[in-house]
Amino acid sequence: MDDSALTIPLFPLGTVLYPGGVLPLRIFEPRYVAMVRDCLAHDSLFGVCLIRAGFEAGKPAIPHGIGCTARIARCEETGPNRFSLVARGESVFRIDRHWARDDGLLMGAVTLADPPDPTPLPERFRGLRELLERAIAEHGAERFPSPTRLDDAAWVAFRVAELLPVPPERRQRF
Question: Distance between CA atoms of 121 and 153, rounded to whole angstroms?
Answer without folding.
Answer: 4
